[in-house]
Amino acid sequence: MWEFELIPVYLLLSMWGGKKRLYSATKFILYTAGGSVFLLIGVLGLSLYGSNEPTLNFETLANQSYPVALEIIFYIGFLIAFPVKSPIIPLHTWLPDTHGEAHYSTSSTSLGQRNLKKRIAYSSVSHMGFIIIGIGSITDMGLNGAILKIISHGFIGAKLFFLAGTSYGRMRLVYLDEMGGMAVSIPKIFTMFSILSMASLALPGMSGFVAELIVFFGIITSQKYFLMPKILITFVMAIEMILTPIYSLSMSRQMFYGYKLFNAPSSYFFDSGPQELFVSISIFLPVIGIGIYPDFVLSLSGEKVETILYNYFYR
Q: Domain named NADH:quinone oxidoreductase/Mrp antiporter transmembrane: which ranges (predicted)?
């Protein structure tokens, strides 16, 4: 079912996207479908070799022994597939092009750029780094933090693309250097966008802060890495924490402050309506809820995380 999502996204992008929609749609389907092929080969290989009868049961496959050569082949397949799907640098280039040319409905279902949607898309790549670090720590805290970050980014990214769409519906502007002064005309959208920008840069009290904090503790308490790798990974995390406020706050400044509003094609703008406010608040409530009470999510993921760690260390 996961792969069936590629079809409607491709159709939305190719039929209702921007000027380069065919190029972006082709690039999107080649990257994602290509990654799916490697993923499918790995999964089928595991299921066919893992037991006397073909099975996709995770516990059964995790307890099987495989020849070293076969493990390397499976590893290479997953190593190609997951960075494309995530996406992770350098296999991330399809994501900004897809979001940049997609219609806003497509960007909402999917999740130094002048294009507003491309800048939001690059924030997805940035957040994915924390998720990978949490998973790579192979600790209870790191994996739980990665799960929180995945959920948090899902809500925050969807809300940012939704607000970008509502802004575009009023201004018909997509490039940041053409915007400015929008806070006066659409104060409700400005307020919601500003709050979500704070959530994106992990403001305390919101879900992103809790997730990044748990990932940080997970990597520094990991017994898998020596001191120098921990210092290097922590340094990379610190750089990301510094750069995120720069591009996030700069995006808000270019959109909502200044005097370029008069250059917009239309002189009449209306603020967010009841339906848009309802959608925005509905998406935002989990961001606050997880930030205040993360134990709700952690109580659901704890047992699965322990199973993963047990299979990794003791199988």
A: 2-105, 106-232
